[in-house]
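step 3/5: co-fold with aspartic acid
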Amino acid sequence: MQERHIRVAKFGGTSLADAEQFRKAAQIIGENPDRRYIVPSAPGKRFGADIKVTDLLLSLLKKDVDQSKILDAIFARYDEIIEGLDLSLDLSQVREDIKKALASDIKHPECYVASRGEHLSGLVMAKFLGFEFIDATEIILFDAKGNFDAKSTNSVMSKRLSGCSNAVIPGFYGAMPDGTIKTFSRGGSDITGSIVARAVGADLYENWKDVSGFLMADPHIVDHPRTISTITYRELRELTYMGATVMHEDAVFPVRESGIPINIRNTNDPDAPGTMIVAHTDRMDLQNVITGIAGKKGFCILIIEKEMMNTEIGFGRKVLSVLEKYNVSFEHMPSGIDSLCVIVSERDIAGLEKQLMDEIMITAQPDVIRLERGLALIAVVGRAMKSAIGTAARIFRCIAGEGINVRMIDQGSSELNIIIGVEEASFEASINAIYRTFVK
Ligand code: ASP
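step 4/5: write tokens
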């Protein structure tokens, strides 16, 4: 007997923004019978100034709003989709349920209202495809404290889905043991898709968006950056940590554990191969060397100097104990013989600057401590860097060529990334210089 392959296909908000987008999604699903489990988001923006359905739903909880007007706007969007798809589907019960919930004292009302967007999308999609609708409250489980319960979810979900060859499962939410609806953080339908992919042992988790994959750099900074064709989970983590966005960060964990690749695809350009996110790959881009560049502004450096610091055992611990006390995490900690720099985010230390410095002064007794602001960090990430001699030299040469001063350097021990710190004002120019140097 031929082995049956399984793909889980998740469609984001812009991929389901109106009837036409629903049709495109359905066409994609119909083209490959392996696409058996579908995870929809709530309809997103149709044009720049449009409002996402999830945001409309959340606005129901604001003070002094006309709830029935907002409900009209929300249901008008679904009615338009239903009409555009020539379906006959009555959603009035869901509207009644929302009204009832708004009038009563439910737990986590923001989760409840926000979840209805995916719920409604799921009902429409299931009807349009002729697939079974399985409510996420049945198979995505949170514990009594509201934390996602991965173990129970996996066993309940795999059992439920093993008896069902095709299903639509709304993204973004699940239920606590008492039935209270709980959502993941915003953008969380990505996580649902990943959880479903693991539970059914999918060969591939397809994440359909409105972009043709993960770009090598931020398109707001670099003009038309190239799409990354293959990236490892580790590289992805480095880039998303430094601000690149393509998918919810937590969506990687469930599939990563079971080695299921993720394919980021574009609903509006289904022939484009998109980006493959994999556990390991032998495919090295030795021509471009780097996989991607990302970065963030808003960091500062605590510069701490003390004569004979190198011989003082426990100096670093004393400094870090103060950061720990104030719940401040550090990003990097390059050091010299008699000096230590601690890079922290401006946001983490806002309002605490003086206290922190005073306390480090008392605890570690340095000769000098000062704070320099306005640092931007840039991560140059690439698995091929390990085998390409001179990568660091090329980065520094091109930055120097722009007349930019590098204020900090840090290379991860895995040689997967090189992090540099520059003045915030030089951030964009540095990224462009690096991109131009490496990407052919
Ligand atoms: N609809 C939710 C949001 O806008 C979840 C999602 O789309 O993934 O955040």
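step 5/5: annotate
The longest helix spans residues 109-129.
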